[in-house]
Amino acid sequence: MWPYWLMYFLPAFPALMTGRRPRHLNWLPWILLGAVFVLLVGYRYQVGGDWGTYLIHYDREIGASLTDPITSGDPGYVMLNRIMVQLDWDIYGVNLVSGLIFISGLIVFCRAQSRPWLAFTVAVPYLVIVVAMGYTRQSVALGFIFWALTYLERGRFVPYVLFIVAATLFHKTAIIMIPLGIFLYSKGWLLRIIAVALIGYGMWDALVAPEQEKLWNTYVEQQMQSEGARIRVLMNFVPAVFLLLNWKQWKRIYPNALLWLWMALGAIACVFLVGFASTAVDRIALYLTPLQVVVFARLPFLARNRIRPGTMVLLLILGYAAVLFVWLNYATHAVYWLPYQNALFN
């Protein structure tokens, strides 16, 4: 399991050594880090609980042309598989492109935070190791969502919507992120509401509506359960509480603070809904995990009058190291991630 610890400490060490984000952040270390992570994610071999399922998805597209109609599945992921079949890149091509989308989105998002290396460190145990290496379609959707949120914080509504649409093409559940585009402080809120409503309805009608009965039966009526959902929901709950406790300072310092308030409220709501349909809530809660990255990257500054920033950074790194240790050693499904294998070395 040492490759996972390597992935964790690669950003953790600079997080300990560096302070707040400088005005001009050097791209070179991030490009090198991104390349390492994309290779580790993209060329993984028999890693992740759904490895066999994704092989089936790939094999299903063998013989299909790019112009054949897509009758089931997520169109973005289906088309990616078809392209890789045409190029004969195998499942590794699919995973490499998926990893590139996820890691690039995560890096852009983290670089926008006050402590970029700490933000990336926080993301490694669950978002990178579990999600990017285990749930490919949702990881691509989340990669696009990271890009989208970066634009939304800058008040860029149109790029936000375009990236959310791209995310929805890879996993239908990403459609729940579209309404967040309303929560900007800039003018034109009525036009944004109309645009969000029209785009949301169009995406729902095209992608979700044909399978809504199947989704409801699977996630709710059949009480499909997701092991560990409560723990993952609680991991979002903690930063949500920190945000609420520091709300006055948060909204004074950070632009478009309202969107993070709504994400925090969503994370708190998930705590009460997880017992109703744990898998459905677990899927939704995944898109709220950027809250962990943002809040904990900003917490050393927000809590500076109570705890020294360096001490807070150390506590957060130790805390997420504990999360990774517990997951690797005690999680029910961690066996599907162990040992880590890479096609480049097999």
TrEMBL record:
Instruction: Kindly indicate whether the keyword Disulfide bond belongs to this entry.
Output: no
UniProt keyword terms in alphabetical order: Membrane, Transmembrane, Transmembrane helix
Please list every transmembrane segment annotated in the UniProt record, as residue ranges. 27-45, 91-110, 117-137, 157-182, 189-209, 229-247, 259-278, 284-301, 313-338
Protein name per the record: EpsG family protein
Protein source organism: Thiolapillus brandeum
